[in-house]
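Lesson 9: reading folded outputs for more than one chain in a single document. The general rule is that every protein is listed as its sequence immediately followed by its structure tokens, and records are never interleaved. Here is the first one.
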Amino acid sequence: MQGSSLLSLMQEKPAGSSTGAAYCESYYPTEFGWSGLRALRDGRFKYIDAPRPELYDLRADPHELHNLYHERRALAAELNAQFDSLVARITPQSSTQRAAAPADLEVLASLGYVGTSSPSLAANPRRSLLDPKDELPTYKALSSAAQLAAEGKCASAIPALTRLTEQQPSLFLGYLTLGKCELAAGRLDAAEPALASALHLQPDNLEGIFYRGICQFQAGQLTDSRSSLELVAEALPDEPYVYLYLGMIAEQEGKLEEALAEFQASERLDSRFEVALYKAGYVLAKIGRFRDAAAQFQKVVALDPSNAAAHRNLALAYAKSGDEAAARPEFEIACRLNAAMCVSQNQP
């Protein structure tokens, strides 16, 4: 990607007086518990601010193979001073300009979006964090384990993730992926501490809070689960899975009208969310609204004609609403798809 330096504008110099200096930054490594990286290029030299600082002569060493930091300490100090001055200029110091609300920043950061300098990191450029340049083997191992997890191969991913988190207790994404894998494997006793460790490192991470809520739900901790999921719903009101789980919590508590409202909220956000459609139909049938339940199960079988349980419940909803003619073929389809469904049509 090509571009032009804005340093002259930041320093309030005429546009034509640029010295060729340019600034760049990456805080992506902080997602792994490592230090961010920032760099200043001024003419022929490039200075990288990191736990292990780097200085390169780009004219003599365009591929940046020979770090001159220890050989040219005076030049490095001069560039570092320019660097600190630039960061001070571009880091907001007052509220004269409208900034994003803290809650908005938390949501964006939690989802991995970084668009501006981080004031806290800018003020502490050389904190006692690992240098990401030294962590490429860890990054590759974590990426491989995450790929296994994404493919549903958690049995293979869990040992690798366990080793990585033991080696690096600050590896947030390692703990989060491990917790999700343990949860998928049904090992709640292992999922809970992994997710707790992830949230200890990043307490406001919405994905971590969401999976903690699911873990709490599966463990029967309904009040805690609701609290976790409501935090996510407040920050991400357009996430259908949150309302699905809030509905299942209400359903287990016997609050059927509340459960129905949550399932319907989930459906409004994603009209093809089959589980939410099914759950809404099931609750409608339980509260005696059989025609409405039939309409829901019709949507489910339209999405998934092989769903024997949906055909069976559609048959029952038709029968309970007095439409035996419509119930009969649905019952036959359910029986054909799954022999276990071949019982009396009126038997719940």
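And here is the second record, again sequence then tokens.
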Amino acid sequence: MASHIIQVELVRLSTPIPGAFLVAVGVFPSSGWGTAELMPRKYIKGPEDGIYDFDLLAIKPDRQDLALTYRTASSIWTEIPADLRAVRVHSVSNSITKELNNKVIGDASTSPPTIDYASWIGKKLIRQGESPPADGQAFILEKDIPEPHRIVGPGSVGDEMFVEGRLDIYVDDKGIITAVGLG
């Protein structure tokens, strides 16, 4: 699933193809993600508010790195539900709702979270309960690291399970960050 939705457009189509055209742009947490797809959520009976929900999905890569990837997905509805008022496209961190005339409903913050993880390398990791260094050394507070995350130090025994979106922070025996990865 996309980590953040950037933009959603919903346009009514006229002849020769009556219907609606839905486009969504999202950010995925690393490079290598496959073609994006808008997956409609299934309803036994249409939603009471007339807002139909979609998830922005793509095939996960075998290996992830820190480069964000933008993906676009589109879908054509040839049969618009009679009660359609809007669509809502979901990601892990947000959703954007658009009315059929493209009016935005609610919060549509489109700025993806940006953290320069590479800039952490060489900084001291300050664990819970530790004090920042008094000598002016650059540091990162563990409490400020987004969840989920794990700290991997020399000789650490950790699981080998891949956890989508988890940040792995590698530190040396002095607590200096030597690498940051996903998994």
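What the second record shows: The two ends are 15 Å apart (CA to CA).
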